Amino acid sequence: MNNIFCEINDYILENEVAYAIFDKFPVNEGHMLFIPKRHVKDFFDLTRNERESIFELVDEGKKLLDEKYSPDGYNVGVNCGEVSGQTVMHVHVHLIPRYTGDTSCPKGGVRGVIPDKMKY
Ligand code: 5GP
After folding, report:
1. In the chain, what are the domain boundaries?
2. Helices (H) and strands (E) in the chain, counts
3. What is the mean pLDDT of the chain?
């Protein structure tokens, strides 16, 4: 199963099981993706070790972004399946730094996956 991530080798962070890259079309400056080395499409098919290894890198990525960009908050998310918005069929966790004023009304955050339901 080859996909767009297979062609990328400029890793920002890496461990034995996973790696991190910057998103080519960032939602905000510093948007990172955390990807298992094993080719697996669905987040729910990851092993415990893969999940732990990915989230170790998410923690490291957060530190790196805090130092580099000093964001005011973060969204962490995974799109699971086409219906959820997944476009690259190799699991990846998004770490999106948030900056005060980057949107006029951030209330609801990840609820915005269905824009009409974002506010409650
Ligand atoms: P998905 O919609 O599958 O959750 O997210 C795929 C992500 O991959 C998107 O945020 C998109 O911007 C990013 N992306 C797509 N193509 C490339 C690429 O060639 N390089 C990098 N670094 N990111 C990519």
Report:
1. 4-114
2. 1, 5
3. 96
